[in-house]
């Protein structure tokens, strides 16, 4: 081989080696411009304006009262002008962003953008304004779906798979910062699966693309023009962009949006456990190779987990074939699973793995029952009218007020009406009901701590046609004793 060809071969080898080892500045390459992509996407991004009627209640009225006809009454009425201090209504407005997901008029935004708005207006890039109705909203993931009635078909955006996006990928954000209108910013994905303590389903995409107030509800795009996130929050001590913005990933948003479109609400899987982190110490104590999974701290009675045999102290390692690497992974995968589905759990118990099958309940139904039960409990009257007594739970303040011992437990008699059955039996304000005694040969003492327990017992006795409520009572400055009360109407 001639010297000339040897030099050529050497040069080509060095050039090839240089190309192979030189890293790309970005897996997708550095774009020369975003203009074509922006032109294509802008018509599908909208500004959202909301109006809410708020009633201001002024508490600055003077608390003076004078007899009618008094000169002081006229003077104070004229001076303070009570008519002007009456409750007033005012309009509160807010601005945000959104985007079209269906050509017939469905639009997505953040739940916190629309809040409890009385009126919602959508403004398109061509300045067309349309009134919107709320189809459904989900505060847990901060998503809302709106519907407008356009005169022509809208241009809908396409969803992308956020799970395929990588840290360092280029992204575009389009929105309505500070009410300025359609604004395009670019940046990269800074991190994924961020937990910013906004809710139990946090798994945000973090970006350094400029996101400011008003960008909430706007889309985050990959370089294919697909929506991979919904811009929702920023970290900003100053209130402006500092390069730390967060978006709800499309993989989480799509299912929620479809449910809201179809049913106006969500239906999430419910397991019925309270969990905590598995740290190094817990992993070591349980004999795990490393910290992983979710430690079951407690199990809700009659919940799916209770019925399946899950116990406090179990560590859930897998849910429906998905690894639970951290405790916060479990609520997300459970919520993303259809209610009623039977799934398999891999659990660490007694230094070994076991498998349990669980049929999931519905989270929303459980929460609705919980709210109803709480409301019923809060509205339950603590006054037993036919007995003439008013009851209450014992609080530290009441212990001090009635000079009760620190360790006493029971239900406090807050008031006894004159000439009532309770008064005739010698019960007084400040007495403490320690227990209810069953009127049978066993004479079982059922300890009580809440008025509802006594009310429920009275209802049970009436149902069983019993006429006497036998109480075990600690009287003021006296030893406990038994007090029978006649409960028939």
What do you see in this structure?
23% of the residues lie in helices and 34% in strands. With 489 residues, it is α+β, with helices and mostly antiparallel strands. The protein folds into four domains: 42-147, Thrombin, subunit H; 158-263, Thrombin, subunit H; 269-364, Roll (Pdz3 Domain), CATH 2.30.42.10; 379-486, Pdz3 Domain (Roll), CATH 2.30.42.10. The strands form five sheets. A seven-stranded antiparallel beta sheet has the order 5-4-1-2-3-7-6. The chain is elongated, with a radius of gyration of 33 Å. The chain starts with a helix and ends with a strand.
List the helices and strands and how they pair.
Elements: H1 3-21, H2 35-41, E1 45-56, H3 71-80, E2 88-102, E3 106-109, H4 111-114, E4 119-123, E5 129-131, E6 133-138, E7 143-147, E8 158-159, E9 170-175, E10 183-194, E11 204-207, E12 219-221, E13 226-234, E14 245-249, H5 250-263, E15 269-270, E16 273-277, H6 280-286, E17 294-299, H7 304-308, E18 315-319, E19 322-323, H8 329-335, E20 342-349, E21 352-359, E22 361-362, H9 363-379, E23 383-384, E24 389-393, H10 396-401, E25 411-416, H11 421-424, E26 432-437, E27 445-447, H12 451-463, E28 468-474, E29 480-486
Parallel strand pairs: 8-13
Antiparallel strand pairs: 1-2, 1-4, 2-3, 3-7, 4-5, 6-7, 9-10, 9-12, 10-11, 11-14, 12-13, 13-14, 15-22, 16-17, 17-18, 18-19, 18-20, 20-21, 23-24, 24-25, 25-26, 26-27, 26-28, 28-29
């Amino acid at each position: 081989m001639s010297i000339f060809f040897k030099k050529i071969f050497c040069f080509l080898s060095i050039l090839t080696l240089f190309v192979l080892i030189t890293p790309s500045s970005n897996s997708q390459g550095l774009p020369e411009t975003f203009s074509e992509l922006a032109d294509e996407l802008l018509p599908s991004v909208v500004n959202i304006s909301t109006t809410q009627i708020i009633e201001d209640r002024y508490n600055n009225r003077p608390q003076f009262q004078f007899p009618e006809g008094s000169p002081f009454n006229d003077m104070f009425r004229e001076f303070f002008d009570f008519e002007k201090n009456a409750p007033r209504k005012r309009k509160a407005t807010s601005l945000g962003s959104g985007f079209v997901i269906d050509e017939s008029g469905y639009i997505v935004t953040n739940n916190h953008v629309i809040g409890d708005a009385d009126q919602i207006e959508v403004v398109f890039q061509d300045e067309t304004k349309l009134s919107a109705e709320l189809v459904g909203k989900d505060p847990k993931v901060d998503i809302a779906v709106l519907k407008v009635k356009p005169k022509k078909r809208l241009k809908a955006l396409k969803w992308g798979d956020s799970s395929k996006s990588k840290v360092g990928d280029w992204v575009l954000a389009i929105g309505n910062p500070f009410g300025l209108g359609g604004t395009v910013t670019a940046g990269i994905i800074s991190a994924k699966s961020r937990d910013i303590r906004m809710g139990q389903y946090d798994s945000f995409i973090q970006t350094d693309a400029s996101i400011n107030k008003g960008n909430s509800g706007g889309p985050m795009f990959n370089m294919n023009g697909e929506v991979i996130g919904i811009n929702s929050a920023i970290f900003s001590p100053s209130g402006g962009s500092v390069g730390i913005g967060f978006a709800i990933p499309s993989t989480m948003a799509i299912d929620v949006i479809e449910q809201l479109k179809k049913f106006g609400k969500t239906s999430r899987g419910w397991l019925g456990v309270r969990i905590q982190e598995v740290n190094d110490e817990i992993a070591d104590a349980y004999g795990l190779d490393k910290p992983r999974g979710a430690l079951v701290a407690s199990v809700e009675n009659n919940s799916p987990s209770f019925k399946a045999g899950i116990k406090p102290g179990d560590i859930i390692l897998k849910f429906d074939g998905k690894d639970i690497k951290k405790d916060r992974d479990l609520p997300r995968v459970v919520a993303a699973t259809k209610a009623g589905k039977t799934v398999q759990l891999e659990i660490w118990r007694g230094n070994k793995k076991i498998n349990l099958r669980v049929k999931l309940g519905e989270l929303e139904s459980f929460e609705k029952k919980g709210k109803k039960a709480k409301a019923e409990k809060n509205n339950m009257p603590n006054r037993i009218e036919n007995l003439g007594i008013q009851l209450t739970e014992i609080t530290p303040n009441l212990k001090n007020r009635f000079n009760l011992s620190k360790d006493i437990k029971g239900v406090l008699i807050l008031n006894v009406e004159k000439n009532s059955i309770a008064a005739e039996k010698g019960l007084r304000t400040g007495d403490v009901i320690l227990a209810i005694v069953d009127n049978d040969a066993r004479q079982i003492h059922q300890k009580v701590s809440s008025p509802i327990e006594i009310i429920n017992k009275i209802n049970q006795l009436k149902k069983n046609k019993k006429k006497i409520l036998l109480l075990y009572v600690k009287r003021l400055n006296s030893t406990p004793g038994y007090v029978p009360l006649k409960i028939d109407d």
